[in-house]
User: Fold this.
Amino acid sequence: MILPGATLGVVGGGQLGRMFTMEAQRLGFRVVVLDPDRDAPAAQIADAHVARPWSDPTALSAFASQCAAITTEFENVPAEALRALAAHVPVRPSAAAVAPTQDRLDEKALFASLDIAVVPWAPIRSAADLAGAWHAISGPAILKTARMGYDGKGQASVATSEELFAAYEHLGPAPCILERRVTFEREISIMVARGEDGSVVTWPVAENVHVNGILHTTVVPAQVPAALSAAARETAQRIVTALDYVGVMGVECFVVDGALLVNEVAPRPHNSGHWTLDAAVTSQFEQQVRTLTGLPLGNTAPMCAAAMVNLLGDLWAEGEPQWDRALAVTGVRLHLYGKAEPRPGRKMGHLVALAPAADTALMLALKAWQALQE
Ligand code: AMP
Assistant:
């Protein structure tokens, strides 16, 4: 067990690393961040910062030498970098547990091995697979690169085989998957944490709305039948257990004809779990600290209903948003990540509204978000 007072390392200095750092520091740990950006959101508040890329072996050992244990905040940290760090100190989740989630082809194979239902899909390992994949899916589809996609990046909607060939030229040529574009009733996600001793906890199922492939709102608890929540919980538990995963993971799902189809997993805390900082007994970031240090897993119970709205750089089109207007809405909490440059589509912060019921929380969160745009 690693106790408060020790120094923890986080690979990546974005907003997830920043919220991890805040929670770790609240618990009395020191935090070192590895990120080449001198002004990275987590680096601004960390106790120490190694401003070097993870591709630099000297930086990795300099970073590891300061840490009692290391975690990540970004799913695409190369498994080799995690392995190199693990030669010095415990790394959680491990390279082996993260690797299958970094490639959509491997991830689909994992789901198949666990009998987890997914949308119809076909592999495209090279251009030679394009015609066969189109034949297999034959209809509106989404081409996704196997590696390095996030927030709708590395994806293209296609409706004809010509569009598929053109999109592959544009995105690739690299291994991809072609997925049928499904009409879902709703999107849900479940946050799950697994400790070193194999114990697993989940937070209540969240309901998500994406706009242009980027998360827009999350509401908790999701308005779904108890059996669906139980299926989501059980699925998440099976995934982390099969991977021998130690840490926090987000499992994103579609609900189609009342049934659960898993879309993808994120091997780290997830945007749809940000509400836990405000409304759960233990936040996803505190849980990341607990799983990393071997402390007991915390209670995941919600203290009330919550709704989150992401604040993208687009909000800054006319200058700094008028924060006072959002903060005037009752029950609203504001989180800003300290990013200097508000680019369109860039996650700059989020709002969370707390209320006794989910629909009220969503109404308040959207009201605050709209007030920022007036
Ligand atoms: P992903 O990067 O796979 O999480 O995709 C981002 C978002 O695009 C998802 O959360 C959905 O809103 C949408 N999306 C992705 N795949 C599909 C699909 N096969 N059918 C319909 N919508 C999808």
Remarks:
- The first strand starts at residue 7 and ends at 11.
- The radius of gyration is 20 Å.
